[in-house]
Amino acid sequence: MTKVNHVYILNIYAYVILILGIYGGEYSNITTKRVREMIRTPDIIPNNLRNIREMKGKTMDETATALGINRSYMSILENAKANMSGETALKIIEYFDSSFAALFGQQGVMKLPYTTETLKTQPTKILLTKEEYQQFQAGDIIKAVKLVEQEFKKLDLPIDLADIEEISSEPVDGSNKVIVSIKATISEPTEEIGEFDMNLSSNMDLDLYRALKDKEFKNNEYFNVYFIENFLGIDKEQVQEAIGLTEKGYYEIFEAEKKISVKLMWRLVKFFKVPLEMIMNVDLYKKKFI
């Protein structure tokens, strides 16, 4: 039995659906459990953009122009109808000479919508070439996933695969194909309302704060996460679980190969309990992405 728990399996579910009609892999024996404990995060994080703008004496039009966004989108952000991008958040912080905590920190507890995930585990079958099957077993299925992603886009599937385990395999006579029986763990979202402590300046980890205050970012070091992990005596798996990243996503974000979202910024601050500006080399990040 081969256990495959790899970032690239996230899209293999499209491949599963693609062949269900061919090989009869109907949903059955479904079991359900709660997804691992990621820091609960509001669907839309409230911000103080309007208050900061008015306090600085700026109009909506001139602020929107300075940020490179249109006025209608500016209004959406000020009324917390959508999350701003990480880039926009950093532009706002720079423009108003502010901070992440000042932009997003709120007083006390707020009741806000959030989304939880439920994991459903079920057996099914997928069809792979022998080469793809070898990559599948090795946990290196980049080439197979490229094919899968194409079908994923066509099928517009809303469900995300969290894990996959091979049960058995059977070659297809007269071809280079392999039918692989798997147990797929699928993630489904559920919307709820919950209470959130939105204060980003309270309950700081003072020991970590002091350690980071005396530390300078190294050349081309976009985040202090590795240092923080060592200081706190935690491993990357704990960080991945808490902030909701796969192994691949962890490296993509912290090596600045992928842009960071406001939600992820917020979770980093809540998890490490220090200002974002101590976790993230904002100046270097802006040079690359803004």
Helix content, binned percent: 40-55%
- How many β-strand runs? 5
- Give me the CATH fold name of the largest domain: 434 Repressor (Amino-terminal Domain)
The helix/strand series, from N terminus to C terminus, equals EHEHHHHHEHHEEHHHHHHH
* Helix segment tally: 15
* Largest beta sheet: strand ordering: 1-4-5-3-2
How many domains? The number is 2
The shape, in one word, is globular
Radius of gyration, taken over Cα atoms and rounded to an integer in Å: 22 Å
* Model regions low in confidence, pLDDT < 50 over at least 5 residues: 1-36, 143-152
Give the CATH H-level superfamily of the largest domain. lambda repressor-like DNA-binding domains
Q: Which structural class matches the secondary elements? A: alpha+beta
Which sheet architecture does the biggest sheet show?
A: 5 strands, antiparallel
Mean pLDDT: 81
Task: Specify the CATH class of the largest domain.
Answer: Mainly Alpha
Distance between the termini: 46 Å
Strand content bin:
15-25%
CATH architecture descriptor name of the largest domain: Orthogonal Bundle
Task: Write structural notes for this entry.
By secondary structure, this protein is an alpha+beta fold. The protein has two domains: 1-200, Orthogonal Bundle (434 Repressor (Amino-terminal Domain)), CATH 1.10.260; 203-290, 434 Repressor (Amino-terminal Domain), CATH 1.10.260.40. The chain contains 15 helices and five strands. It has a five-stranded antiparallel β-sheet with strand order 1-4-5-3-2. A hairpin with a 5-residue loop joins strand 4 (160-171) and strand 5 (177-197). Residues 1-36 and 143-152 have low confidence and may be disordered.
